[in-house]
Amino acid sequence: SCADRTPLHDAALQGRLLPLKKLLLQGMHVGMITLDGITPLHEACLGGHVACTELLLKHGADANSASGDGVTPLFNACFSGNTDLLRLLLKHSSVHHPAHRRNSPIHIAAKQGHTACVDLLLSYGMDADMELDEVGTPLYCACESRSTECVQSLLILGADVQCGRGLDTPLHAAVRVGGAKEVALLLEHGADGKRRNSEGITPLDLATDTSIKQLLQTA
């Protein structure tokens, strides 16, 4: 809510380094938290502000703090897509935070098409095949949002081509949104076009686009 936000939150979100520095020097606590569990560090990361994030961390901000709905600064950094910011945060926070089972940095990075962020998280040991009930795997998210480069990178880095959301595979997701490039990539990496989801539907059953139908039929 707006009522419990502090000037520190606003300066961090807007990337205003000098006012932020001044407020901290005046004794405003770096870990000020809103009723929703949002800290100034959350805000700096959401805005993609590296210098503000660095300053807050130097003043002892908790890089692993989770908001009321399980959002961490790492999640916000991945949403922003700033790899320098993500690299900085990864020195101070864990990719294995329990909150990431609710709001996962790698899933949001894949959904937003931030390939460099996905690659970085994987290099720090985040699971490429982590499946969340509501959104599936990172590969499934990337297919749903037609993030071609992200799909390619995940497959090259070893993501399971059949692992999606329950029985719904990444190929189902790609066909459903008409992502011909994603379909081609998945098939190249061994995706099964005849695999049925929980409703008994195959990717071929979902295909309405002629070029996608041809890809599936000739695979």
From TrEMBL:
Keywords: ANK repeat, Repeat, Ubl conjugation pathway. It comes from Clarias magur (Asian catfish). Gene3D superfamilies: Ankyrin repeat-containing domain (1.25.40.20). ANK repeats lie at residues 36-68, 69-94, 101-133, 166-198. One of its GO terms (biological process) is protein ubiquitination. The lineage of its organism: Eukaryota, Metazoa, Chordata, Craniata, Vertebrata. PANTHER family: ANKYRIN REPEAT AND SOCS BOX PROTEIN 11, SOWAH (DROSOPHILA) HOMOLOG. Signal peptide: none annotated. This is Ankyrin repeat and SOCS box protein 11-like. Belongs to the ankyrin SOCS box (ASB) family. Transmembrane segments: none annotated. InterPro entries: Ankyrin-SOCS_box_domain, Ankyrin_rpt, Ankyrin_rpt-contain_sf. The keyword GTP-binding does not apply. The keyword Repeat applies. Pfam families: Ank (PF00023), Ank_2 (PF12796).
